[in-house]
TrEMBL record:
EC code(s) of this entry: 5.1.1.-
Keyword Metal-binding: yes
SUPFAM superfamilies on file: Enolase C-terminal domain-like (SSF51604), Enolase N-terminal domain-like (SSF54826)
Classification lineage: Bacteria, Pseudomonadati, Bacteroidota, Chitinophagia, Chitinophagales
Taxonomic source organism: Arachidicoccus ginsenosidivorans
Mandelate racemase/muconate lactonizing enzyme C-terminal domain location: 137-230
Protein name in the entry: Dipeptide epimerase
Active site: residue positions: K155, K256
Superkingdom: Bacteria
Length: 351
C-alpha cells in the first residue's frame, strides 16, 4: 500500500463552544489515504486539544512508522486494525483514520459499499441532529430560526440552561437532544431532568463528569433510576473496557469513531451495547465529509446519530455524502462513496 497524508484546518461557520468555556473557530484534522493499484481509500482524524491530539503529533508518528503502515499485506480491514492497534498503541485517532481508509480501499477493491461489508442494508436510517453550540440566548435562538431542522442537539452547561431551552422552545417544535459534556453536578442534574422532559428533550448526553470514584458511580446509578429521559454515555464510554457494567448507569452509549479508534472496534461496541439492551448513538467530532461518511456506514444499526460536521464547517471537505433536513444520503459508489476536495497540493508525501 502507498500512504499519503494531508493537514487541513477548516473554519467553522460560527465559533463552536461547549461547556467549560472550550471554544474554537476552526477544526484541524489529518486526512490520510491508502492506495493499492488503481484504488485509493480515505480516512480522517480530527485534532482535539482536550485529548492532547494535534496534527503535528500524528504526522510525526506517521513519519516514524510509515514503512510499517505501508508494508501490511491487505487481506481484510479487521486484521489491519489489529496490526495498527499494536503498532500505534498510544494514537487511537491516527489508527481510526487509517482504519477508515482501509475499509474504504477494501470496499472499492470488492465493489461494495462499506455498509454492505458491515452487513447493513440501507434502510430505516435515523435522521442526524443539528448542533447549536453554546452562545448567548439571543444568538442561539437566532441560529435555530436560521436553520430549521427536525432534531436539534443543544449544548448546555451554564446557569441559564433552563431559560435557554424555554426560549428555544418558543421558536421550534423539533425534539431536542441535550449535551452537557459532564458539566452538571448530581444535584443540578436531578433538578433539571424532569424539566427537560417537559420541554421535549429526548435524551441527555453525559450529564455528569466521567466517574472517578465509587461515589461518582453511585450518583450516576441513582440518576439513571430517576431519569424520565434517556441518559447516553459519551466521555464515560470510549472503548470496550468501559462497557463493563455500564448498563447500570446509562440507557445508551454514544460511539465516536475517532475516540474508539475506528470502524473495526465500533462494530464490537455496537454488539456489546445491544447485548446489554442499550440504545446506540454515534457522534461526530466535527469531521468533514470523509469522517462523516464513515459514520454513515453504521446508520442502519443506530438509534440516534449526530453527524453534522459538514454542516457546521465552512467547507464540507468532500463530495458523495449529502445531508438534507437530517436525511443522510450516500453516492452509492463502492467504499465510503465519497471523494475529498480542497486538499493541500502534495500533502506531506515527499517531506
Amino acid at each position: 500500500m502507498k500512504l499519503q497524508y494531508y493537514a487541513i484546518d477548516t473554519p467553522f461557520k460560527d465559533t463552536f463552544t461547549i461547556s467549560g468555556g472550550r471554544s474554537k473557530i476552526s477544526q484541524p484534522a489529518l486526512i490520510v489515504s491508502l492506495s493499492l493499484g488503481p484504488f485509493t481509500g480515505w480516512g480522517e482524524a480530527p485534532a482535539i486539544s482536550y485529548y492532547d491530539v494535534t496534527v503535528e503529533k500524528m504526522v510525526r508518528e506517521i513519519q516514524a512508522k510509515r514503512l510499517f503502515i505501508e508494508k501490511f499485506a491487505l487481506t481484510d480491514p479487521e486484521r489491519y486494525w489489529h496490526y495498527l492497534h499494536h503498532l500505534l498503541p498510544e494514537h487511537p485517532f491516527l489508527v481510526c483514520a487509517l482504519d477508515i481508509a482501509c475499509w474504504d480501499l477494501y470496499g472499492q477493491m470488492n465493489r461494495s459499499a462499506v455498509y454492505q461489508l458491515l452487513g447493513n442494508q440501507w434502510e430505516h436510517t435515523p435522521l442526524t441532529d443539528y448542533t447549536i453550540g453554546l452562545d448567548s440566548i439571543p444568538n442561539m435562538v437566532e441560529k435555530v430560526k436560521k436553520t430549521p431542522w427536525p432534531i436539534y442537539k443543544i449544548k448546555l452547561g451554564q446557569p441559564s440552561d433552563l431559560q435557554l431551552l424555554r426560549a428555544l422552545r418558543e421558536v421550534t417544535d423539533s425534539p431536542f437532544r441535550v449535551d452537557v459534556n459532564g458539566g452538571w453536578s448530581y444535584q443540578r442534574a436531578e433538578q433539571m431532568l424532569p424539566l427537560l422532559a417537559e420541554l421535549g428533550v429526548e435524551l441527555v448526553e453525559q450529564p455528569l463528569a466521567r466517574a472517578k470514584t465509587e461515589n461518582d458511580l453511585e450518583q450516576m446509578r441513582n440518576l439513571k433510576q430517576i431519569s424520565p429521559i434517556a441518559l447516553i454515555a459519551d466521555e464515560s464510554c470510549v472503548r470496550l473496557a468501559d462497557m463493563k457494567g455500564i448498563e447500570q448507569y446509562f440507557h445508551g452509549i454514544n460511539i465516536k469513531l475517532t475516540k474508539c479508534s475506528g470502524i473495526t472496534p465500533a462494530r464490537v461496541l455496537i454488539n456489546e451495547a445491544r447485548s446489554r439492551d442499550m440504545k446506540v448513538m454515534m457522534g461526530s467530532m466535527n469531521e468533514t465529509v470523509i469522517g462523516s461518511a464513515a459514520i454513515a456506514q453504521f446508520l442502519p444499526q443506530l438509534d440516534y446519530v449526530d453527524m453534522d460536521g459538514p454542516l457546521l464547517l465552512e467547507r464540507p471537505g468532500g463530495v458523495g455524502l449529502t445531508i438534507e433536513q437530517g436525511k443522510v444520503s450516500l453516492s452509492g459508489t463502492a467504499g465510503l462513496g465519497i471523494r475529498p476536495t480542497d486538499l493541500p497540493a502534495g500533502g506531506f508525501e515527499d517531506r
